Amino acid sequence: FFWCLYVSLVASDECNFEEAFPGGNIDWRQVHRTLVPAVRIPETWTLKARKRFVPWMQAFSFSYFVDAHQSACPLGLLFLRLFVLMVANDADRCIELRDRRIGFEVLRFDFRKLALSEWPVVALLARLHSNTVAVVYPLRSSCDETDSADLASFRGQLVGWQKHGRLPDLGAILRVIEGPVSRCPFGRAAAVLVAAVKLPRTTPLSGEVLDLAHQAWELVEAWPHNRSIYSLLVTRWPIWHLLEHLSASRVEASTPGAQPSAPQIRMLVPESAAREAELLTPAGWVVTGVTCNESSAWVRSVAAAASDAEIDELVVLVSPRIQSIANSTVEAVEAVVEQMLLHPAIAVAGAPLVDPSSRWVWPVRQLSVRNSRLVYSRFPTGYASTIGRRCFAGGASSGTKVYRASAIQSILSEAGEVKGLSLESALVELDISALHIGVSVFTCFTPPLSEEYYLDAALVYPSLASRFGVEVAAFSDENRQEGCFEIAWDSPESYCRRQLVVAVLATMSQRLAGSSGGSLEWVGMSANAVALAAAGNFAGVLLPLCLRAHSGGWHRQSLPELCQRTCSICECRVSAGQAEVLAISSGRPTLLATVDLVSTKAVGCSVVGVHGEFNISACSEQALSPARASVAVHALACRMDAAVLHNTFRWDVGVEDCVSFFRSVLDKLDPEQVVVLVSPSLTLDDGGAAAIQRVADLLDSSSGVVGLPTHRDVWNSNVRCFHHRYWKLAYRRTCAHLARSDLGGLECWSTQATSGTRVMKAGLLQQFIVGQEEYHGHTEMLPVELDLWLEARGVPHRTCMAGVLNESDYLDSVHLWRGFAERHQVEAAWFSPSNYHVQCLLRDGWFVVLTQGVVGPWCFRRDVTRVLQGVAEYWLSQDPAKHFVVPEEGTMLSLWRNGEAGYMPWDSDFDLKLYTTESGPSSAEFAASAGASDAFSRMQAEAYAYDGCGDDGYVLVRLENITHHIGDLYVGSNVPPESYPWWTTMLGRRVRVSQHHLEHIFAERYGEPVEKLYGDGDLLGCRVPGHNACLPDCSPGGPCEFDSSFVHIDFLADEASLSFEPVCEAWLSAEACEVRLMLGALLS
After folding, report:
1. 328-355 residues labelled b (16+ CB within 10 A) or e (exposed)
2. DSSP character for 649?
């Protein structure tokens, strides 16, 4: 004992030597040179940086069984152990802190030795305390729980010191020191330390101060530390921070030189809140009240106030809907201002917000204005780029924002005269103006603003239509609108124009069919057939429409009745058996359609459905002409009824082993021979044969593959596209952008997928067939294989309007079989609205992410999502009034990374706290009851109780088909709901959060993780180039984001695209889904 005491008091702590341990050597000079400076660098504690300290973790292991006081460098070894505990994760740290030895090692040192040491042990203890009291599982100090009400009040005053630097007065200190002796000595120790802090010091650490600090140290040591240093590190008494404040090892901030003066801050607030703002804002801020009775007056008032600002000033524009200024608003604004002072590149910045329903909103949004649509949408995984450690770039943020004066002046100049219907819509115009002049809008992670989310109340109004062509707007999840005020008739991209055309055609076709058995016919095939059949696409309808009305039993005199009430803004002009349908907008007539009344239907045209709301005859007069047979066509078919063969072509029909059969036939053909790959469902009539022949006559070596429209009950344009990424294959009935690609004067459209029957050169088909394997009963997948093969090689793919084939859609009958799934890395396939398949391939989802650098397999992420949702539902259903769910760890990070759509696609599991406001089950009780429940049985989930850290029970969730656990649950009792006062949604489930918890996870647990990282701390990046699920390249300094939300399991297309189609099963009823897939996302 005396030898240890001598070492701790007398031995030098310079340690300029290397020391041998049972498992290896430690060079104390290198430890000091490397780790001591790192203590004061915030980036040290980020997940990315921790990977640098792996060698020191190894040193921790091989010196583990050596008592620090037995080491030749005792303070160095203690410092190393505490440093490694700091860079460890919460759970490992908690387990190590249970070891009594570390605590005894700390307390056996004389504080005077620690305070004067070159090893910043006390600073590490202070940081360790901060992290320990805010870990994922709440830790309660048995010592704190014995405090009297007076001591608890004094402790509250010390919290004020930590936040604002204000120490309790001397009277309060003496009352604690001289008052009744408490069973827990921490309060008295803290009071002694506060007295030491208040003493005047002429030297960094005077003898009197050091003696008082040592007296407090002895008080702390007197507590029976049954769990080692554990009880010290979970106490709410800021003992370690006070000791750090006194310690000689504390690195004081360098004395600043002349600092540039801070810019003037102007705060523009609604007039009703101006007086309140003046009382709450910091000294020196200029508060100006602005008019908020209507949008135009508000913008003029803001512009007048902002014009007075100097170019380097900051202008705080408070949301016009705020009627009073809360402390929380000022706190949030101050934090945003602080970030803008740190980062001059930020021109505009907002903050998170809490609305009147206590909903916490993270408002980073990207903004898009195109094709008559205004869309505010989340980034696929939260954000693409950042500035600093807390500010995230986007196109929109909260209603209240901080602007550099030059930025707000430019934005207001671009906005001009605002004529919105609401104050919220005026904010929308400012967003669009910022987008037009290229100003990014940042959201900085700060305490939240208290305000309504302006996008929930914004409106589509005439000014948006006239200035920006906006007719449809997706402002927020709760607010999607359309408004056809001033239709841009000269733009074929107008959503309202397209909807009006649909209404006209639907009315006419229904009246004709209902009254006389008549029909509506195109005059020839036109681009309108493609545009109107394109379900999710609002663009491309050309005016005027040229139509024929086959009257059936009607008379020419009935034409006015046909036109009557065609649409609310339409007018019909009838003369000589022809009607002109005009739309009247702003007093200007625009010709929508000319309709000829004819007594007989055109030969060869059949009435088929072109659109969900009407039928119209689809035919091609070009295709009705006799086949010229100028080019020989060789037809290849397999497993096809010989009765449907047509004598126009030469036929080769196989019975089985289709790939081998095609290969043998193609080997004998000239590569320039025109071949038609025939769908087994084709019924080839004269019209179909003529259409194929017309394409064959125009085909050359560069034409690629050509298909045709088809019909069998429903007319399909077959101009469609697909997404093949992230373990998914999703076909869509349309392409986001319709593009003409004519073939020798024949109207054609670029596509990624066409009809099952296709025309091409034999050489091209042979190149494809050579690389194919036998399909073992799945020959129907051959066209899908061809689609992917053509896309991968950039071979042109067209659908030409040469006629209509009578065949079923091949995508309705294909099946995702395992060979195809493995070859193309597809686990989920949406071939058509009625044909959806899943083929799960991998059980080790997390290891695939880590080793290959790809998005987690679709089935793995589906299962994790399903179980997360199921666990939350199960817990809440037990007692909705008293139970609540709190996201934790990486699941909490998803709140910044579009957790509404899905958890991070590279994450391995989920973490949830399951809390109740009263006494609840232990971890063992929860695991037993939940594991035996119907809910867990339906999910095929298993629950296992483990000894966790802290006072929460710890439960692991597993699925039998996944090799590693997929969920960590922390079960807690008697948790007051006010500890987590706000709610938000994650994967459609309501969860609760608090600022303290958000700050801990973001800033402390993950060290402000603006970078997107693997669990081992490396930046995301693909390690298997060419894989269809590659993670984005997150190289330092560049953007780091997926190109669309298609990465999430429940999305078939990006929500900002023209063909936004969420998965039916997950989001909509079957009826609503069919409407959405037919008419587009905003028509359901």
Report:
1. bbbbbbbbbbebbeebeebbbbbbbbbb
2. S
Residue 146 CB coordination number (10 Å): 13
- Averaged pLDDT score across all residues of the chain: 80
Q: Residue 625's pLDDT is what?
A: 44
Residue reference for tokens 């009765």: 643
Question: What's residue 125's pLDDT?
Answer: 85
Determine which helix (DSSP H) or strand (DSSP E) holds 441, and give its type and residue range: strand 441-444
The three-class DSSP label of residue 781 is helix
Can you read off the two tokens belonging to residue 405?
């004066």
Structural contact between residues 954 and 923, judged by C-beta atoms closer than 8 angstroms: yes
Measured CA to CA, the distance from residue 769 to residue 664 in angstroms comes to: 10
- CA separation for the pair 968, 965 (Å, rounded): 8
In the chain the first and final C-alpha atoms are separated, in Å, by 80
- Report the candidate in 119, 109, 143, 129 with the shortest Cα–Cα distance to residue 213: 109
Nearest CA to 615 out of 520, 500, 504 is that of 520
In sequence order, the 6+-apart residues with CB closer than 8 A to the CB of 671 are 761, 762, 763, 766
DSSP labels, 490-540: T-TT-HHHHHHHHHHHHHHHHHHHHHHS-EEEESS--HHHHHHH-TT----
- Separation CA 1001–CA 558 (nearest Å): 73
- CB distance 265 to 313 below 8 Å: yes
Q: Between the CA of residue 267 and those of 80, 250, 306, 400, what are the distances in Å? A: 49, 38, 10, 10
Contacts of 12 (CB under 8 A, 6+ apart): none
Helices (H), 667-722: 686-698
What distance in Å separates the CA atoms of residue 830 and residue 816, rounded to the nearest whole number? 9
For 241, 247, 650, 980, the CA distances from 109, given in Å and listed in that order, are 18, 14, 97, 40
Question: Given this model, what pLDDT does residue 627 score?
Answer: 44
What is the C-alpha separation between 48 and 21, in angstroms, rounded? 29
Q: Give every CB contact of residue 258 below 8 A, 6+ residues apart in sequence.
A: none
- Identify the pLDDT of residue 7: 42
Q: How many CB atoms lie within 10 A of CB 881?
A: 8
Q: Is 669 left (phi over 0), alpha (psi -120 to 50) or beta?
A: beta
Q: Which residues of the chain have pLDDT under 50?
A: 1-11, 227, 248-260, 525, 535-539, 554, 603-613, 619-628, 1054-1084
Structure tokens at 157: 């005053």
Cis peptide before 380 (omega within 30 of 0): no
The string of DSSP codes covering 216-278 is HHHHHHHS--TTTTHHHHH-SS-HHHHHHHH-TT--PPPPP-PPPPPPPEEEEEEGGGHHHHH
Evaluate whether 674 touches 696 at the Cβ level (below 8 Å): yes
Q: Which residues of 805-833 are buried (b: 16+ CB within 10 A; e: fewer)?
A: bbbbbbbebbebbeebbeebbbbbbbbbb
At residue 829, the pLDDT reads: 94
Sign of torsion over alpha carbons 544, 547, 551, 556: positive
Phi and psi at residue 94, in whole multiples of 5°?
Answer: -60, -40
CA dihedral for 453, 454, 457, 458, sign (positive or negative):
negative
Q: Which of 164, 185, 163, 167 is nearest to 176 (CA)?
A: 185
Residue pair 198/192 in contact (Cβ under 8 Å)? The answer is no
The 3-state DSSP class for residue 826 equals coil
Nearest to 431 by CA among 421, 445, 441, 423: 441
- CB atoms closer than 10 angstroms to residue 905: 22
CA 96, CA 247: separation in Å to the nearest integer?
25
- CA 394 to chain centroid, in Å, comes to 13
